[in-house]
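Good day; I would like, with your permission, to put a structural problem before you. A protein sequence and the C-alpha cells that stand for its backbone fold form the material at issue. Thank you for your consideration; the sequence and its C-alpha cells are set out here:
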Amino acid sequence: MMPDYTVSVYLEGEWDFFKSWSNLCIYCDREYDDYELVNITDTTYQERVDLGFIDE
C-alpha cells in the first residue's frame, strides 16, 4: 500500500494499480476463484526472485 492508500500489485506477470485495498479485493474476488495476496514490502531482490516475482 502506498502513502496515499493506493495499491500497486503484480498480477499475471504485470504491475497494476488500484485506488484502494478494498478495490483490489473486489477485483480479485470477481476475477479469480482462488488467489493469494503476498506482501513483498521490504523484501530483498533475492527474496523476490525466490517468490517468482522476478525471472533471472
Q: What stands out?
A: The radius of gyration is 12 Å. The chain has a mean pLDDT of 87. DSSP finds two helices and two strands in the chain. Residues 21-31 form the longest helix (11 residues).
